[in-house]
Each structure stands twice: as structure tokens, then as C-alpha cells.
Amino acid sequence: MRAWALVTGAARRIGAEISRELQRADFNLLLHYHRSDDAAQALAAELQELRAGSAQLLSADLRDAAAVADLAAQVDSLCGDDGLAVLVNNASTFYATRLGSIELSDWDELMGSNLRGPLLLSQGLAPALRRACGSLVNMIDVHADGTLRHHAIYCAAKAGLASLTRSFALEMAPHVRVNGVAPGAILWPEPTLGHEAENEALLRERRETVAEIPLRREGEAQDIARAVRFLAVDATYMTGQILPVDGGWRLVPPRIAPLA
Predict the structure, then answer these.
(1) Which of 9, 93, 239, 257 could make a disulfide contact with 15, Cβ separation 3.0–4.6 Å?
(2) What is d(CA 230, CA 156) in angstroms, rounded to the nearest whole number?
(3) What pLDDT, in 10s, does the model give residues 30-59?
(4) Domains and CATH numbers, the chain
């Protein structure tokens, strides 16, 4: 009987690659998604084609506390007495919030998806993780230790998740290991139709960032997926750690952007 792993935000990008990597590590996958129905269905079909019975879809809005509680109950029921072997809190909302134009809705959206949702889901699934002597991996960000211009709320949420990772590592020990992965320049936001000026600025920022990275290239989703697999499966004497996967970006002094 294969163990179950739950990946939140599994339908696209890094979440989908983490799911593929964990299936290759012989887990069955519980694929959480919110709005990306088509992508989630396609990923589930892909995984089922590789191994029948290895993927199941679960939909929930992680900003909604009641929905998170219901998701945790569904997962607990599906995993049964064996418990949940791996929880990857990957789901995230990312967008700019410029000082002077920040709304309460921005706080609710960014904190809800990046901090409150992972907190409530981890708490709800703690008994299932303990039954399996499982592993919890949180998706942090290299900017949790610093900042990213015009992204104050996002960075604060990820900094909170980093702190939560260390706190839960103590509280869930010795039965559950809790670690985090901090991606650097991996997958950039996709261009937005009709926002040419913003797209050009994003492209310029992308070029400047890659030029600063010691390895002189962007990372790939596979780099993050392998790091998650390492922490979830192989790093049996690691807990409370946040593993940067950034090509050495954290070693570079921060660039002061021009005022805008």
C-alpha cells in the first residue's frame, strides 16, 4: 500500500512538478487546487496514466477557514489509519502591493493564501501526519529574509511562514519533520495581456536578476521539486530548516532599485 502525499496548489507550475516528483518517489497524490480545474484534471489524468489509482483531486479555497477544515477532514478520511505521509504547502498568491494603495482585501488575499491557509491546514492535518510519522514541507521564498520592492504583504506572509516552519518543527517533533524550501528566480509571472508597459518592466527585471545570480541562470521547477523530495523523503535528520534553492542569489548584496 503506497503512502499518500498532499500537495496544495498542485495543478500548475511548481506544484505540478512537485506532484510528478513525489509520484516518482512512489507516493500516491492528493492534488489540491482552487480555480485551475482544467489544469488539475489534466495533471490527474497524466499521473493516472503513469500509475492507475495514484492521484485524486481535492478542491478548496485556502483563504476560507471552513473550506480548509473540510479539506483536512477529507484528507484524514482518505488516508485512514495509515495517516498522511507528506504535506506540501505550496499554494500561494503573488502580486505587488504598492505602499499608499494597499487595501484590506490585499492583506486578506495574500496573508490568507500564504500564511493563514498553511497554518490551519497544517494544524488540521497534524494528527494524520503524526500517525504516519510524516513530513511537512512549506514553500517559503528567498525574499522572506529580506524584501521585494512593492511586495510588502507577500514578503511579510512568507516571513511568517518561515517562522511557522521553525515553530511547528518544535511542536510536531519527534514524530513529524517540518522544513521549508525557499525558491529564488524560478518561474516568473506570466505576461499580462494588454499591460505592455508592465510586461516590459518585468522582462527588464528578469534580465537584471539573472545577471546577478552567481550561477547566471534561472532555476527550473524541477530544482524545487527535487528539493521538496529531498526534505520529505531523504533528509531524515533534518527539521526546522529552510533550504534555499536560488543559484546563490542570497549571497549577492541587495540591489537598490531607483525610486518609482
Answers:
(1) 9
(2) 26
(3) 999 999 999 999 999 999 999 999 999 999
(4) 4-186+220-251 (3.40.50.720)
